[in-house]
Specification:
Strand order of the largest sheet: 1-2-3
Strand content: 5-15%
Structural class: mainly alpha
Oligomer: single chain
Distance between the termini: 41 Å
Shape: elongated
Radius of gyration: 23 Å
Helix content: 55-70%
Number of helices: 7
Number of strands: 3
């Protein structure tokens, strides 16, 4: 699809620009998520009557949330490259960052929201929305990054023996590391009765989705050639 190809090209350009551009863009997405969540929360609180919304105090709360998210993201290593994208470790850090930001803006809103013309329930509604928005964008980023990876020349296809947790982790690492000298062409469960390869020729061979550009027949041929060389 044209939209997917465009997003993939943009992701490749973003990664080529360096880590500062990648994590800066990620912070910008998180900031927009907080602002959008707060606006939606206030509009929902007033039953979609935007005339009652006090936009200037709401803008101040949004700016405060963005600054707090930057501090929280730095504390919990969201913008410092510690966690793999789309991993459970990143989601855990994201949860604590959202909780920290919600506390920073939630306590003053509950105490002084009436004086600021901001509903006191704003942060309570906005926090889960912001968390969902950020998580969805990270999942989308993970899909685009995996699609955008272009391995270097001379990469060799490899057959992974063992399709458990370690094998799946190894396959994912090889698929997402552009400097990896190997690209997975399949995974052997060592249990022929469970599954078959996509071509039906290789019992016990499970081909990972999008494991390589060739797919299916080339991957099965890779597994067959490996068996003949044993």
């Amino acid at each position: 699809m044209a939209v997917t190809d465009f997003a993939t090209r943009r992701m490749q350009e973003l990664y080529a620009a360096g880590p500062f551009s990648r994590f800066g863009t990620q912070f910008a997405v998180d900031g927009v998520s907080w602002a959008l969540a707060l606006v939606v929360a206030v509009v929902m609180r007033y039953e979609f009557d935007v005339v009652q919304v006090a936009w200037i105090p709401l803008a101040f709360v949004c700016v405060t949330a963005v600054i707090a998210q930057l501090v929280a993201g730095w504390i919990f290593f969201l913008y410092r490259g510690r966690h793999p994208f789309g991993s459970f470790a990143e989601v855990r850090s994201l949860f604590w960052a959202v909780l920290f930001t919600a506390s920073v803006i939630g306590v003053p809103t509950v105490l002084f929201g009436t004086e600021m013309d901001v509903p006191r329930s704003t942060v309570l509604i906005a926090s889960p929305l912001a968390f969902v928005f950020m998580g969805a964008m990270r999942y989308l980023k993970r899909l685009l990054v995996e699609r955008a990876v272009i391995h270097e020349d001379g990469v060799q296809k490899a057959l992974i023996y063992g399709a458990g947790y370690l094998g799946s982790t190894l396959v994912r690492r090889m698929r997402t590391d552009r400097r990896s000298p190997f690209v997975p062409c399949g995974a052997d469960r060592r249990r022929p009765a469970q599954t078959q390869c996509a071509s039906g020729r290789r019992p016990g061979c499970r081909v990972p989705r999008n494991a390589s550009k060739g797919r299916t027949r080339n991957e099965c041929n890779c597994a067959n050639r490996h068996d003949r060389s044993r």
